[in-house]
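ugh ok fine here u go
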Amino acid sequence: MIIVWLLPLGLCLAFGAALLLPAPGLWLNEQGLLPWLVALIFLVNGLQTRLQQLRPEPGFGRTLLMGALINLLLSPLLGWLIYAFSALDDSLRLGLLVMSMVPPTLSSCVVLTRISGGKASWSLFLTLGLNFIGIGTIPFVLSLLVGSSLQLSPWSLLQTLVNIVLLPFIGGLLLRLWCPPLGARPWLGLVPTLSVIVTSWITLSSSQQALYLLSADALLTLSAWSLLLHLALLLLCLSGGRLLRLALAERRALLFTASQKTMPVAVSVLVGLGSASGAAVVSCILFHFLQMLFDSLLASRIKGRQARMGESEDALSG
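structure:
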């Protein structure tokens, strides 16, 4: 049971540690540990993936299109509604709007999908595909909704995707071919979960001062709008999966990938807009943490329910 709830419990501990004792996390961030943690997640995912799971499947193309529609088009429209009609401070609204435009986070989508029993290979390729598509959609959507003429270079993001996602994943696949028993180690599944927890701790520690800029009322209001936006994305993903008549494992891959948003890309966009400090960044930090916490609780609940159902079936068959 502790393992089932490891991710949400770890994220809560990471948040508390970042607020109370940020110095170790700051030091690790200065050492450049974050990219290595993301690479480790995808190395392990490669180790846990069979080559047969990577063959082309007929339903993936339309699932990618549905994910792009939800994550990169409908999500910015929802963010714009919050931007236009909420009573949040201008900087907080801008941060939340930018967060609604960016593609899924690299560190957690596959981990959450695997925890929930979803198709992790689909989550991986959805993450890569939506990040590639997002390179082109972010400047266009920004220009359409807020009149910005931001120019984003696709090469830095492309290099990041190759270096910390694609190459480690291929390395994991090769390791599995060279040493098959390594991919079956029971403790291996804990490595990505622990990496996500440590990544969140380092990220929150680096942003601790920005979190203290807000009053309690502003923090609560921002939290409510952030959760509302994320819940709307989850509902859209559920509806999209049913509309496409996807299998349960495929629906979970769409659910835990197309509803997620990446904080580093959002901060990069704010840098381009000249708003990469203070309250705008707080919106990105808080949204990132709340989506991680909520989805980790949801994935753990799904896993716990599956475990109970398996025990019931064993008891009946016995």
